[in-house]
Write a structure and sequence with these properties.
By secondary structure, the protein is mainly beta. The protein has a single domain, classed as Methylamine Dehydrogenase, Chain H. The chain contains no helices and 34 strands. About 5% of the residues have low confidence.
Length: about 425
Amino acid sequence: MRVRAIVGAVAIASIGAAPAPGQTIEVSRQRTLIVGTPAGGARTDRLDGARTGRARTELPSSGLHAEWRTPLGTLVEHAPLVDERANIYVVGARGDVIALRRDGAEQWRVATGAAQPGPAAILADGTIVFADAAGDAIGVRDGAVRWRVRFGQAGAVAHPAPLPLDDGGVVVATTHELAALDAEGRERARITLPEPTVLPPVAARGQIIVVTASGAVWSWAPGAAEPVRVASFGAPVEAGAALADDHTLVAVTAGEVHLTAVDLSRAATSTRAIAPAGLLLGPPTVHHGTTYLALVTPTGELAVAIDASGAERFRTLLASHPPSVAADGGISMPVVGPHTPLLVDRSGALAFATADGSIGVTRGTIVELLGEKCEPPVGGISRVTPPVAGLAPLEDNAFVVACHAGAIIAIRGQGRR
């Protein structure tokens, strides 16, 4: 829910339960601040601050068809965002921010000049924010650049996704820095991380949680001078962690063969599951304690569901392919390339994309594929981005797909019967 607050001489801000400097207020004039959590299908990377990949709306389960397809004229490397009015926002690989209406028509486009833009987030007031390789955070709204702030060091190729805050601000990151900005882009707090990260920060227990390169888990309350090491996954994390409940992070570790859980309240680490004859692909998708992951084997791509006890609830084949033959004539283990994380809805239905750009949904063991797919860009498969750059829920029985080659597809289908 979003709330408009008319502020005069006093401002109160909150970041979950974490203490932080509030929004900067010009006391000589009245000003309206918008705070709270916006509604909408996807306000940040992996849909929410817990990075769950859990849709608030129902995903279709059958009868898939492309409602519309809009070419963007630019490569896309990150998942689209969707606001409460089902407007769709995409940051192109050259830094263009593009807004589409629900019917796929382009509303506006603005060139930001950003170098290697990272994933974006929607703030409470509708501002689209992302960081780039120059160490800048850029805010765009209504077809114009609202602000640009240098907060970190240049040079990073991968930029962790921003984390929108309930007070209307945002936490932005480079591989070495975290900064809390207000809705106008003004810096409220900043720290340097003890070691690098390319993983998106997670909102948990009223704090900002960061997993760094070694798998160490750090907690930061914006305004504090430095982060606190609270736990460790014991090994590097693949693609990102998700909050499975109010105190448990889950992630793929140990060379993509373990699903590992970290209890933030007890600093305890446990192996929840080990990949059966294949490799697990992060980041995890979670709902009601169950973790959903893609599993790549020598002969196919599957979806697996693992409950909080580590028991496998189901395993579903999404795509099959001929096995690779090793030099000794045996079947070789799969080589994992770029992949697209799953989405889940409240019933456990999944939306997925395979390595060849096929798009589909599955509910349990029933799988349906869309009749068309995202083709790789000219020149072949990217080593950085899969043919499907990302998925986002749109409304009940509909979701959108960003194709790396430069198109947005709205997919509709039928719900549960």
